[in-house]
Amino acid sequence: MRGRLLLVEDDDGLAELLRWHFEREEFDVEHTPDGEEALLLAKENPPDIVLLDWMIEGISGIELCRRLRRANPTANLPIIMMTGRGEEDDRIRGLETGADDFVTKPFSPRELVARVRAVLRRVRPALAGEQLAFADLQMDILQHKVRRGGKLVPLGPTEYRLLKHLLEHPGRVFSRERLLDAVWGRDADIDIRTIDVHIRRLRRAIKLNGGPELIRTVRSAGYALDDDAP
């Protein structure tokens, strides 16, 4: 499965070098040198990870990181910051703002790819292997099987695709429109409330007596895979 990376870097030479390395590693890379444009791109179609330079055009990288963390569609996006500032206070400031990792220039592109993969292994397990898991729920992608608490869960093809998408992004809240795009495709002529029907079916299918509810409804926002669901 290809990872989607948003690269926010205003050094064209470095941006091209990083694009080459990540595309060679089968990432889809979208690049912008501008912080305001990056914010719009991330909100419109959230990537799997953001690679963000501290000093960029428009708003600063640290401010962009802060805004991404405050916005509902991007609050859980993995973010790695790149900077020429090596002072400890700057690193701490970046991490406290919400960055998942911090890379000081100059760096090895191969090391940066490894760091990106390490972060994605924690938040997007589908990019690292054939097994998806959350709480006591497991999905074997190769065998096309789902189990909860070790028991096989029968799912229809639509509920399977819906659960797979949620398992690939645990904790992230998706609007009905986002789920519609992800499961049926952008050109599908399907009523938006169809999502609610399939969410109800999925909840019934994965319900475990005595186990926690795993799909959380976020009022006016959408749905998330979350073991704190009521």
Q: Any key phrases for this structure?
A:
single chain, 230 residues, alpha/beta, Rossmann fold, 2 domains, four-stranded antiparallel beta sheet, 21% strand
Write the layout of secondary structure elements.
Elements: E1 3-8, H1 12-24, E2 27-32, H2 35-44, E3 49-53, H3 61-70, E4 79-83, H4 88-97, E5 101-104, H5 109-123, E6 131-134, E7 137-140, E8 145-148, E9 151-152, H6 157-168, H7 176-184, H8 194-206, E10 215-218, E11 222-225
Parallel strand pairs: 1-2, 1-3, 3-4, 4-5
Antiparallel strand pairs: 6-7, 7-8, 8-9, 10-11
Helix pairs in contact: 2-3, 6-7, 6-8
The gist of it:
By secondary structure, this protein is an alpha/beta fold. The chain has helices at residues 12-24, 35-44, 61-70, 88-97, 109-123, 157-168, 176-184, 194-206; strands at residues 3-8, 27-32, 49-53, 79-83, 101-104, 131-134, 137-140, 145-148, 151-152, 215-218, 222-225.
